[in-house]
Amino acid sequence: MPHIVYKENRIELNEGQTVLSALLEHSHEIPNSCRAGVCQSCLMQASDGTVPEHAQDGLKDTLKSQGYFLACICKPAEPLHIIDSKNIHQRYTARVINHEFINDDILRLRLKTEQTFDYHAGQFINLWMNKKVMRSYSLASVDKLDDFLELHIRRVPDGLVSNWLCDEISSVDSLQIQTATGDCFYVPGSPSQKLLLAGTGTGLAPLIGIARDALSQGHQGEIHLIHGARHKDDLYMHQTLGNLAKKYKQFYYHTNVLIPDNGAQTGSPVPLDLQLQKVAGDDIAESKFYLCGDADIVKKLKTKMFLAGASMKNIYSDPFIIAAHGVNT
What is the DSSP string of 133-187? Predict the structure, then answer.
């Protein structure tokens, strides 16, 4: 009979017994509700062993690739080592190797960790200012291509952490960061699928990482990246992305500027959601979307794309929330 290992305890499974049932029988308090694979409250992660395909029904590819499954419908056929999730509280010391402004208010910060730091391009990390104050920033770097972690940090007026990083940190300093997390990243397996990446402001950072990662893994389908900005000068990686489009025939770079050079606010010749829908075209139902940046804009884009025919399982988002909790400030 198969067994599971959870918190160093080996638990034998009866024939046809689910992981959730076995864990509850052994007094492990596992969140659960529907017990039918619908509510996803019993989401767990396997660190070793093969997860039955059915136990991942309804989960996004990014979760499946990390070994996540639904305990209430998981009936393993072989031993399975289970963890609640990866240790998101683990901290790493990261040395600053580059501190450079790439426009008037955006800092490019490159870090190098003393320990091995695994991540997917497009995920985010928590960066600590002190024992009580931390902020979340998305990764623009690609694990297999870069030997550093790259963050794009916009200076926010009166932003506690952003101003500290912009003004007080230099290339001789070390910072404390936590394990990368988030499910907004590229997963290989559908090399011909159209990818639509759209973001505003420093929401561009994870999109650059995702695009570069997809290209490095041989993605052949069209990859469209749309960067939304208030002014033309806010398109801070304009030349880099233009060069990337010249290098790869399947990569397309688009801009969406709210206020033209003449200063007249027109609401943009084409609103960002309509431009995204137009680029998706007839492939919208089969395309994969990555949406990053301002939380309200991301929410609007998700809704608009869903109503236009996109599948929710193909929409990945990384909204930046600033006001209430100071994230990314």
Answer: -EEEEEB-S-TTT-SSEEEEEE--TT-HHHHHHHHT--TT-EEEEE--B-S-S--
Q: How far apart are CA 67 and CA 64, in angstroms?
A: 5
**Residues 253-298: pLDDT tens digits?**
999 998 876 554 444 468 999 999 999 999 999 999 999 999 899 9
Structural domains of the chain ordered from first start? 3-83 (3.10.20.30), 91-178 (2.40.30.10), 195-320 (3.40.50.80)
Tokens of 142: 């690609």
Buried b (16+ CB within 10 A) or exposed e, 191-208: eebbbbbbbbbbbbbbbb
pTM score, two decimals? 0.78
DSSP states of 179-238 as a string? --B-S-S---S-TTS-EEEEEEGGGHHHHHHHHHHHHHTT--S-EEEEEEESSGGG-TTH
Tens digits of residue pLDDT in 99-130 = 999 999 999 999 999 899 989 999 999 899 99
